[in-house]
Design a protein that fits this description.
The structure is a single chain. By secondary structure, this protein is of the alpha/beta class. It has three domains: 13-42 and 49-210, no CATH class; 284-346 and 661-695, Roll (Urease, subunit C, domain 1); 348-646 and 696-728, TIM Barrel. Helices cover 35% and strands 20% of the residues. It contains 24 helices and 25 strands. The strands form seven sheets. Strands 9, 10, 11, 12, 13, 22, 23, 24 and 25 form a nine-stranded mixed β-sheet that branches. Strands 14-15-16-17 form a four-stranded parallel β-sheet. Strands 18-19-20-21 form a four-stranded parallel β-sheet. Helix 17 (551-559) links the parallel strand 19 and strand 20 (563-566). The relative contact order is 0.11. Bound molecules: zinc ion. Residues 352, 354, 501, 544, 596-597 line the site of zinc ion (ZN).
């Protein structure tokens, strides 16, 4: 007779269960839930083994060829393993492709591994220490088959195939959806026989250390053929569904011991555990948030992609990234964001902007940099930059960045403490540099004053969770040597980063050549601005633009560990030139992407920056393979993190890193059809496609609803302030 227990999360349980009754082990998937079905022989009223779920992992779609380890782990199928237990050679002909079969020690371990082109892995361990073995079990199996025959159920009919190797075709579809159907009737019979031999070769001892059973399993069990009753103590008794009587008691926590106490006349009872998303694991670690996505682009060193995937977050940190089923088994989340139709990726890193300059967006277009600066931007700034303008502008910029998926940005402006305050309120991460410039500006009449102001700013935010204060000497052509060096000395004293514009225009190059007979990069090297490499430990420098550089300059930047921010849109719009991205990448310079201020872009959309970085590189080099989509995405995520010296904290979805991530919808006409998520992110996605933005574990926007900013008020304030800007430039 057969009894069956089921634990499930999907809606197809009964179907699964009916089938599972006849199998030794079975794996199936319903939607995104993976079921692992394990049968435990019970012989003469005693459970002989206690199956224990060790791992349930469907990290499929690792798309990168360098995932060799994972691929290897996945290359054994349950059929092969059972077969090996059977003493038969691993049959290569049983696999879809001629992959290497990982040899696995079968003793004490029954692994069910599904792999194939999607590398969907499910592994079980049955601790089957023991007592008795072998023939009894095999007999039991045979009896079970006989029993099945009497049930007058086609599926349970015994098969003549017990003595031959069954076809075991586990392919990608198995992993995806209809695994169970792939286990043919022959397989069932053969698998039973094979399993019996495996168990015979292993000591069999029932172990009662873990329960994988959820109360729902009990409930389902009731519906599907085995009766039970629960009381406050003792065990559960099981019996086949013949009389409808309950014979015993249990409580949910004592499930394993309950199984052991089963008293049955049957030679074999098959216990089926199906584990899915809602299935209960013995101990699930409480965490604050889980984000489940259709695809998770981890951007880790292997550029691992999980489809589906989930990111487990506790507090401000990522604790795990794995298949949703695995995450569900391991963690109990306070909140779950279901982005099953969306792509989950690290938050974008904008390595160069001037946030409050959104207030000058569209104020003056179609001008060269110096004319644009001297005629419009500097006068507008002289008349309108104030703490209020900086607050209003930064709030607008923060709204735009959160709405378009930027989670960290590097900034250089005035009243940077106001920028910091608003950035923190909005929940964004910022590397914020107080500008040091030789001429009088709104927040400092002299560079000395600017440096003093900067020092106060640094002290205020030195140990902030979100804000990294920085010193930002504007450029080599707007500061003298003493100011440049005083800036880096201040930064080194406090161990904070330096941000500077570098070699943005040909004019800057000309100036440096005329004054110093050197390139801007070489000049800064000559005065010790870049500092010795050892200083990288506590001072990181970010150079924005780096357009007009030669091989030697790139070598200097690489040697000094300088992060470079590439701003393709600003460079194109102001006709500043084309940064040698390929040269930077070849040299291994830490390169990130930036939008620059919205006055010269005219937005802060990093998706557009990715796209333009790719297009510009292709256009400039005549090489269509230049800056492919993955490289562009790298520049906007982990590359940007490196450029800011923050790769240990952000830029990829990895345990231990800060929980900065976004979800992006892929359902628009523009994004249809979807063959490649990375291609779409770079070539067709816009900031507006971002659905949810999370920084430091905090949800800043969910399904486009802002959580930290009052959207309408931010826009109204900006419009109000724009009146003053118009007045200032006489428009
Ligand atoms: Zn700039």
């Amino acid at each position: 007779m057969l009894g069956a227990f089921a634990l499930r999360s999907g809606s197809r349980l009964s179907r699964q269960l009916r089938r599972a009754i006849q199998t030794i082990a079975e794996v199936a998937e319903t939607g995104n839930d993976v079921f692992v079905l394990v049968e435990h022989p019970i012989d003469d009223g005693r459970v002989d083994l206690n199956g224990r779920m060790l791992l349930l992992d469907d990290r499929d779609t690792f798309r990168r060829s360098d995932d060799a380890d994972d691929a290897d782990r996945c290359r054994a199928g349950p059929a092969e393993e059972i077969e090996r237990g059977d003493g038969a050679p691993a049959g290569r002909e049983h696999r879809i492709d001629d992959q290497h079969v990982t040899r696995v020690e079968i003793r004490r371990q029954l692994r069910v591994v599904l792999r194939c082109d999607r590398r969907h892995l499910v592994a079980l361990q049955a601790d089957v220490p023991d007592a008795r073995a072998g023939h009894e079990l095999e007999d039991g199996v045979e009896h079970a088959e006989s029993g099945a025959k009497h049930r007058n159920d086609d599926d349970l009919r015994p098969h003549a195939a017990t003595g031959r190797r069954a076809e075991r075709r586990l392919d990608g579809d198995v992993a995806r959806r209809h695994a169970a159907q792939r286990f043919s009737r022959e397989q069932h019979a053969d698998a039973r026989r094979a399993a019996a031999k495996i168990f015979r070769s292993s000591p069999l001892v029932a172990q009662a250390d873990e329960s994988i059973v959820h109360e729902r399993m009990v409930d389902e069990t009731h519906r599907h053929g085995v009766h039970y009753t629960r009381r406050s103590s003792s065990g559960i008794r099981l019996r086949p569904d013949t009389t409808g009587e309950s014979e015993g008691t249990t409580n949910g926590d004592a499930w394993t011991s309950a199984i052991e106490s089963v008293s049955m006349r049957a030679n074999l009872v098959t216990i089926v555990a199906a584990v899915g998303v809602l299935a209960v694991q013995p101990v699930r670690t409480p965490i604050s948030l889980v984000v489940v996505g259709k695809t998770v682009l981890t951007q880790n060193i292997r550029r691992q992609v999980l489809s589906p995937g989930a990111v487990a977050i506790n507090g401000n940190a990522i604790v795990d990234v794995d298949a949703p089923t695995t995450i569900a088994l391991k963690y109990r989340a306070g909140e779950t964001i279901n982005a099953r139709d969306e792509i989950v990726l690290p938050g974008l890193v904008n390595t160069h902007t001037h946030a409050p300059m959104v207030m000058y967006r569209g104020l003056a277009d179609d001008l060269a940099l110096m004319e644009w600066l001297n005629k419009y931007i500097f006068p507008a700034e002289a008349k309108t930059v104030s703490p209020e303008m900086v607050r209003v502008g930064t709030r607008l910029a923060a709204l735009e960045m959160i709405e378009s998926g930027t989670t960290t940005y590097a900034d250089m402006y005035y009243f940077e403490e106001e920028v910091a305050r608003v950035t923190k309120e909005a929940g964004l991460r910022g590397v914020l540099g107080e500008t040091i410039i030789q001429f009088p500006v709104a927040d400092a009449k002299t560079p000395i004053e600017g440096l003093a102001r900067t020092e106060r700013f640094i002290k205020l935010y030195k140990d902030d969770a979100l804000i990294v204060p920085a010193v930002a000497p504007h450029a080599m052509y707007t500061n003298d040597k003493a100011t440049l060096l005083a800036s880096v000395q201040l930064a080194r004293r406090y161990g904070v980063p330096v941000i500077i514009h570098l070699a943005e225009t040909e004019n800057e190059l000309k100036t440096a050549r005329e004054k110093y007979q050197m390139t801007p990069t070489a000049y800064l090297e000559s005065i010790g601005f870049w500092g010795p490499p050892s200083d990288r430990q506590n001072t990181h420098t970010i150079a924005a633009h780096g357009v007009w550089v030669n091989d030697e300059d790139v070598a200097i930047l690489k040697r000094r560990g300088i992060g470079v921010s590439h701003n393709p849109e600003s460079n194109m719009k102001l006709s500043s030139g084309t940064a040698p991205v390929a040269m930077y990448l070849a040299a291994g310079v830490a390169l990130g992407l930036g939008t620059d201020g919205a006055a010269s872009n005219n937005d802060l959309d990093m998706f557009e920056a990715m796209r333009q970085a790719s297009f510009l590189a292709k256009h400039a080099t005549g090489d269509p393979t230049a800056v492919p989509a993955q490289t562009a995405l790298d520049l906007a995520t982990i590359g940007g993190a490196r450029a800011l010296g923050m790769e240990r904290l952000i830029g990829s979805l990895e345990p231990g890193k800060r929980a900065d991530l976004i979800t992006v919808s892929m359902n628009s006409a523009r994004q249809t059809p979807l063959y490649d998520a990375v291609s779409h992110l770079v070539y067709v996605t816009r900031g507006d496609d971002v659905r949810t933005t999370i920084v430091d574990g905090k949800v800043l926007m969910k399904d486009r609803q802002m959580k930290t900013l009052d959207r309408a008020a931010v826009i109204a304030d900006a419009n109000r302030l724009a009146g003053r800007v118009k007045e200032a430039v006489g428009r």
